[in-house]
Specification:
The protein is 0% helix and 61% strand. By secondary structure, it is mainly beta.
């Protein structure tokens, strides 16, 4: 079983799921799942138990949104220490905000414009001399800011 922890994200709740390397879970998935699921570290190798066939793997940076799910029974194997964030509308007033993926290579920089709402899922950022370590919500309020990645960063942008 993964280790789970809830995190605040701009008025919503994200659940962080930590899986050990090689951990195997079996999940019954419905095609109408309303979850948004994001792989921030590690990966899942997937096998469709229902069909007996290998399935598409989920690498770091992969996202599943409502409408992306395929029904069936699946076996997921964590490759490396794996961190998956999940937004469940049932925990969030039955609402799913617009969520986009975000990443930045180590030592790269980017301008974060006013209004940015970034949930940093993995990595470490410097924004105007202030260090932000995962997991953390970052809001750019008054003026555009330059962010520099100390390590490879993965996150979610809330619109």
């Amino acid at each position: 079983m993964p280790i789970q922890k809830a995190h605040a994200a701009f008025g919503y709740v994200l659940i962080r799921n930590d899986y050990a390397d090689g951990e195997v879970i079996e999940a019954t998935v419905k095609s109408d799942f309303a979850f948004t699921t994001y792989w921030a570290k590690g990966a899942f190798q997937n096998f469709n138990v229902s069909t007996g066939l290998d399935w598409v793997d989920f690498p770091t940076g992969h996202i599943l949104r409502p409408g992306d799910y395929v029904g069936g029974v699946f076996r997921h194997t964590a490759v490396g220490e794996t961190v998956v964030f999940c937004h469940d509308p049932a925990l969030n007033r039955n609402y799913t905000p617009d969520i986009d993926v975000w990443s930045l290579d180590a030592q790269a920089q980017v301008v974060l414009p006013v209004g940015t709402r970034l949930f940093l899922c993995s990595g470490s950022l410097l924004i105007e001399g202030r260090k932000f370590d995962e997991p953390v919500q970052i809001t750019i309020k008054s003026e555009d800011k330059i962010a520099v990645a100390e390590s490879k960063c993965y996150g979610l942008l809330f619109r």
